[in-house]
Amino acid sequence: MSYQCGKVISLVLQERFGDLVESIANYLYKYGPCSLLQLKKQMELPLPKVKEVLAVLLKYSLISIKHPNNTDLYALECNRVLWMLRYPTYIKLIKRKFGGDAEVLLEEILQKGYVNETDLLEITLERLTKISVAATLPSLQEKLNSLVIAKYLINFSSQPEIKEDTVKTDEKDKPMEISTPIKAWTINPDRFHQDLRDDFIVSAFANRFDNNAAELIRVLIQQMYVRTEPWAVVSNPVPIVEVKDLIKKMNNFPQLIAHFDQYVAVLEQDNSKFMYKVGEASGGSFQLGMKHIFTVFAWEICEHIVLEKFDSKSGSYISSR
Fold first, then answer.
1. What is the CATH number of the domain that holds 245?
2. How is residue 233 annotated by DSSP?
3. Residue 88's pLDDT is what?
4. Could you point out which of 1, 13, 26, 318 has its C-alpha 20 to 30 Å from the C-alpha of 276?
């Protein structure tokens, strides 16, 4: 990765964990996976301090352990460090979908890396009580279960790179044990990113057309998940009749219901080519180009920048790429 990326990673870790954690993480960024003894020697730090820093980084899933030739090597997970910048967005998303109680639950997990379920519920209840928000342990347990069912939270022990492990040292040193509490939860970044991606697509079509078109796209993506892996490049076919029936049942967009076929035709003909028809039976089905749409967005942003900086002719040249 680039020098600038390294600077961002250093700043994020320094602000959150302090100079010592930042210095060891920065070394791992520059030189790649290292053993415990390598870090001790190169950083000129006491072994207990190095162990303490590795324990912190493991707790927050910011490093992983590799085992070449039966040697434990510690590797910095750069993306996970950068994802910490998205934590406020994660919190807003959960508040919007699940309410204030779930927001506080998530804040506690993000603050601590992972939290024992019992402790999490008690701490959250205490925080809510202090700000005079009515909540009970059963209601918080229900919110927590909802976050787990929706896969925003996952069992800590289910992550192989964060599993209970032992750092091997020489015979004079005791091994460092990273214990995992029973029934502890941590966040599942992939699930948050899936929602952020979908929100971005829906918002883009709202700006491109209107809220009715955006709702049609939203329901199409929702139904895509019934039959397609979330990060597939192209979705499996989604029957348009199924989408129409769902929109009718919701009955929140009367204009979309009244002009459904016209909206489908306009979106199908749009130069983004996000949705395209396959088959003719029962009105046909549509596939969604989940990867292609971001290529289109990227080009449109480039065109907009060039157009602002130069003139319409330069924008036309870019469009004819």
1. 1.10.10.10
2. S
3. 96
4. 318
